[in-house]
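Thread amino acids onto this structure.
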């Protein structure tokens, strides 16, 4: 509507209805028109639109607008920093209707010379387009998980005598997936290939396929598919070699041999036998990255990895006090019903006005409510926390007497994300040195496939956490998974505990803890080094001790 100069009042009414609907705790498909009409900002016109959407998944006015908007323009609208006004200018003044044309215009410098743009904007468009291109066809693990799982099940149905395994990135639980890779062991290649040819979900690309490997693409989603074939007798060693990253395969096992050469000997019948025969501890699939795990296995130093069931509580969550969807009570009762012993609520601090950050009076009110709920829900306990913004100079967002009223504090950066590595690191160091910081939240601010985090010196930051007894969060939101798993072992080696935090903004958000556990395991995380694997008694003592140590 903004692209087509529609009535600004109409545009605003859509926006406010959308905000109201998103905030509401209901399934829009379930509620009646009557209930809808009671929501602030949802008028007759909007109800009509919703009705249409429910019945036909579209509505006439939308179709009209889409019909006169080139698809490429909609794609350009997705680029960060380009609002409808700028996109409209690019379209009308420069005739740009695709990301390809936009890139060319930027490279020739025309965009910078257009009114309202300038060099800086042009540079940032180029960067965003490059980032986007390098991420095309890539998926967050969590977003593509069920697609790949379904495909796996359908492949299993092709023949009861076949063996099927998930291999590659997905088997290693990588945070970003660029292809779904499978191994099928069969003694009847012809039958298998025949049924695969007529497989409805995949478009095969024969020009890049070979007799033992077929490549193609899913029809419904932009995802590459690779299927390897082998005889049943070769299944175990093939699976070992296809599951591992290259770095794992070229890891030395002896002075003269690397792991891949040992696999080639094919003198084993199971993965367990392979590892034990070669004097190695069993290495779980998710760790086969070439990240020092073979060396650890040689010395029997692969630890018992954290499991979801080890987690005893859920820290770093938001409620309706700030930008969460569910009330404090709902968040607590649901957490308790899942069998956890405690919940850490940490709404946004006051500087985060965009997220309804808490003014001091609201903090006091929330604490009173927590005290009441704790009486009612005992022995379950809610810990009083806050997600304090780390301000530009590294300080926290409340005076000390307010900071002292919390059981724990997650300190996170949410603004001024464009600092260079030196300033960004110093900013974190100052927040870590603040005695009130209990947990460093999402250390780099990255959003996978969407934006790179601000650059930080991971070693220096982790060392500082060790020196100041600060826990580092593994933010379990699939977009974040920050701290990156590649730094988990270094942190543990320095004695820094990690916390698997869902950063839930609604009850369902707790389920994200699963993804935090997956990447924690990739990094070798143990139960002992996980803060929220502590029992209620232990973590209550931990928080209390830490507070007692503040001078
Ligand atoms: Zn945050
Ligand atoms: Zn948060």
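Threaded sequence (551 positions):
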């Amino acid at each position: 509507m903004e692209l087509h100069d529609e009535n600004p009042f109409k545009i605003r009414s859509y926006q406010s209805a959308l905000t109201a609907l998103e905030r509401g705790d209901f399934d829009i498909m379930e509620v009646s028109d009557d209930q809808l009409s009671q929501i602030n900002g949802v008028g007759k016109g909007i109800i009509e639109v919703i009705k249409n959407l429910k019945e036909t998944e579209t509505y006439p006015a939308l179709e009209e607008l889409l019909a006169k908007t080139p698809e490429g323009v909609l794609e350009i609208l997705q680029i960060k920093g380009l609002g409808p006004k700028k996109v409209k200018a690019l379209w009308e003044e420069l005739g740009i209707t695709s990301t390809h044309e936009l890139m060319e215009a930027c490279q020739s410098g025309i965009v910078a010379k257009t009114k309202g743009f300038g060099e800086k904007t042009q540079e940032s468009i180029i960067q965003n387009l490059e980032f986007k291109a390098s991420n095309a066809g890539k998926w967050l693990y969590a977003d593509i998980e069920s697609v790949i799982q379904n495909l796996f099940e359908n492949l299993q149905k092709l023949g009861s005598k076949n063996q099927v395994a998930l291999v590659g990135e997905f088997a290693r639980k990588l945070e970003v997936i660029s292809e779904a890779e499978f191994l099928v062991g069969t003694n009847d290649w012809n039958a298998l290939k025949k049924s695969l040819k007529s497989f409805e979900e995949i478009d095969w690309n024969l020009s890049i396929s070979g007799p033992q490997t077929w490549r193609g693409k899913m029809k419904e989603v932009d995802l590459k598919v690779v299927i390897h074939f082998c005889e049943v007798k070769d299944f175990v060693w093939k699976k070992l070699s296809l599951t591992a990253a290259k770095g794992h395969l070229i890891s030395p096992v002896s002075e003269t041999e690397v792991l891949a050469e040992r696999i080639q000997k094919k003198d084993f019948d199971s993965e367990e036998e392979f590892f034990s025969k070669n004097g190695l501890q069993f290495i779980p699939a998710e760790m086969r990255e070439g990240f020092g795990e073979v060396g650890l296995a040689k010395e029997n130093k692969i630890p018992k990895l954290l499991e979801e069931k080890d987690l005893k509580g859920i820290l770093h969550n938001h409620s309706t006090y700030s930008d969460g969807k569910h009330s404090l009570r709902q968040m607590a009762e649901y957490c308790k019903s899942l069998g956890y012993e405690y919940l850490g609520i940490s709404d946004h601090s006051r500087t985060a006005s965009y997220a309804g950050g808490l003014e001091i009076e609201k903090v006091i009110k929330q604490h009173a409510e927590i005290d009441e709920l704790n009486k009612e829900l005992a022995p379950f306990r809610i810990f009083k926390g806050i997600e304090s913004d780390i301000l530009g100079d590294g300080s926290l967002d409340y005076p000390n007497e307010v900071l002292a009223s919390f059981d724990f504090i997650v300190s996170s950066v949410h603004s001024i994300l464009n600092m260079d590595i030196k300033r960004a690191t110093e900013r974190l160091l100052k927040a870590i040195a603040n005695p009130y910081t209990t947990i460093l939240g999402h250390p780099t601010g990255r959003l996978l496939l969407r934006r790179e985090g601000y650059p930080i010196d991971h070693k220096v930051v982790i060392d500082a956490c060790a020196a100041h007894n600060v826990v580092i969060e593994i933010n379990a939101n699939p977009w974040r998974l920050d701290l990156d798993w590649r730094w988990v072992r270094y942190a543990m080696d320095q004695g820094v505990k990690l916390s698997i935090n869902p950063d839930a903004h609604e009850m369902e958000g707790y389920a994200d803890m699963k993804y935090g556990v997956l990447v924690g395991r990739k990094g070798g995380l143990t139960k002992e080094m996980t803060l929220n694997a502590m029992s209620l008694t232990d973590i209550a003592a931990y928080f209390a001790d830490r507070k007692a140590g503040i001078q």
